[in-house]
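> @MW can you paste both from yesterday?
MW: sure, first one:
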Amino acid sequence: MTAPEKTRLITHLRHIDLAVPDLRTQTDFFTNTWGLKEETTDSGLSFLAAEGSPEQYVVRLREAADKRIDLISFGAANRADVDTLAARMASAGVQLVHEPTDLQTPGGGYGFRFFDNEGRTVEVSADVAVREHRKIEEGESIPVRLSHVVINSSEPEKTVAFYEQHFGFALSDTLMHPRMGNMMYFLRTNAWHHSLAVARGPHASLHHASFELRGIDEYMRGTGRALRAGVEKIWGPGRHMAGNNTFSYFLDPHGNTVEYTTELDLVDEDTWHPSLYDFSNPEVSDQWGTANAMNEFVAQKSFNDPDKGLFVAPPV
């Protein structure tokens, strides 16, 4: 195990918070089509849980004039680790949004927020109450959990270095292209192949948020339900080589890419060695060969709109 992994204090991905101009339409999509459950609402806020997840919520939606990532949230084991991380980051010159404090969001807890190197707001928390959740049954095509978040970066190497240095994230694999160089870095904070990935893009933005389903059958049923509902599919269904997970990418009502996936690899962190995959090889993008070809249209959709929330903390 490498030195960063020994000192890693981040345990897992908790939730992604998005601001959107039309809260009602976005909430309707995530609940009635995508399969999340609205657990709590507040003035201009909606907290959405995955039925199979112990997290209080996996998506928070906030109504705002500008579409943006409000924040990405990660868990820590305890309050002491939260304090240690906050102190480390402050001493390294990372700009904190606020010091560790008791949280007022559902489930409470203790956490702090900061800006990453490109200005995204990130939260680290511990002692959040566990949500009463359940085992997802055979045939239920609803998300079990938030699998991973992928962000676009105009300086992906610097962004990867930031999360490795300050959080102890480890590189699992890299996607490259013969003409364009390294294009995506898969980072893990536990045995899951990746909880965060960083893609090379023209600007900082959300590339996609991915939701784990129970298994192949449930993943295909969910994909079919979204198609029947008229949701725009941009890529899939297929199976990636890096991470070995399935993929079906759709656009939400505000043009964010969301993914259904399943069977993401669990790696042995003591023995894992990162691979460099050339995605000009069609089997790297899709082992099955069932997805539409990765092309400029798919890539452009995944670039998303430039994030208007950089170095501006969300109001809540």
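MW: second:
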Amino acid sequence: MIRPLEYCVDKHHIRTSIDTIDNRIVELLALRKSYIDKGKSLDDEQAEEQPPIRNLNNHYGVLAKKFNLPTEFIQSIFQEIEHYIHQDFIAKGYEQQ
């Protein structure tokens, strides 16, 4: 359970909330990967329909600013995520050409 900060009155409340947040981060990363997997399977079928790839670094920079976090930090996290996903596809033989 994520307890609102104003109701955290001891370290146990803080630890429990952080653990829940960490769990949700990992859960969302797994969900993100599922969407990427699905997107990869649709690439061949819908190649002509797809819009051009957006500038991801700029996108993550906007997200960083939105949540008042360092741009370089957020960009580096997503670079690592993308690197992991790309390596995973290579390892599974999904790399095209």
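> thanks! The mean pLDDT is 83.
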